[in-house]
Input
Amino acid sequence: MIVSKYSANGNDFVIFHTFVKKDRHFLAKKLCHRQEGVGADGLIVLVPKDSKECEYDFEWQFYNSDGSEAEMCGNGSRACAHYAFANELAPSKMSFLTVAGVINAEVEASSDAKGGMVLSELTPPQILETNIEHNGKRWFKLNTGVPHLVHICDNIEFFDIAEARELRQKHNANVNIAFVDGKNLRVRTYERGVEDETLACGTGMAASFYIAYKEGLVSNNIEVYPKSGDTLYLGVNERSITFKGEVKRVFTAEV
Output
């Protein structure tokens, strides 16, 4: 089996393509294992669309490192788009089907086989709750492809992981704290499936940006900085949230 390892602003993924769509949750756990596998936050498998009439280029299967299947992954969507373009599975402007819906993506012309800037347009955000009280803090719940809790905090340096784990179990959602830094936003995320804080989460940054935007705390186009320290570019258009940043192909190998 030939696989590629990708890094997308702190999230890493194992990616391959095949003609066969099947359950791969055991394979995901094996490949994503940090000590005995390739090591990654998730596994992405590209498979053909069901018919020529489908208005997208291909489908994907996405698994977290614990083998659970997720509806969507923002950073994964950008890594997936670059992989598809680099392997001539799709043009630079493409769309593909996830469990959450169809994702549009564009690989910039300056990109090469090793990586580059990729923009993806996430599924339309849905705000689910706006006033969840927990430990004296206000949390928002919304879906940006997968469910997220967001708290606008005063101190991004302190992320209470025990509290995040409790909220993740109670609400079955990823948990984010966001800090307004001038015109931009800093975000930290506890992710389901990984069951810990990760260096970055695309849909988490999108959820945090969208809440800050709807609360009038930031404009409609800003920079967002995850724990990895990278710079992501978030915006809103008439349909959804746009999300742009660099992805890197770390290596391709036979396993």
Notes: The longest helix spans residues 74-86. Helices lie at 25-32, 74-86, 161-171, 202-214. The CA atoms of residues 133 and 168 lie 14 Å apart. The first strand starts at residue 2 and ends at 8.
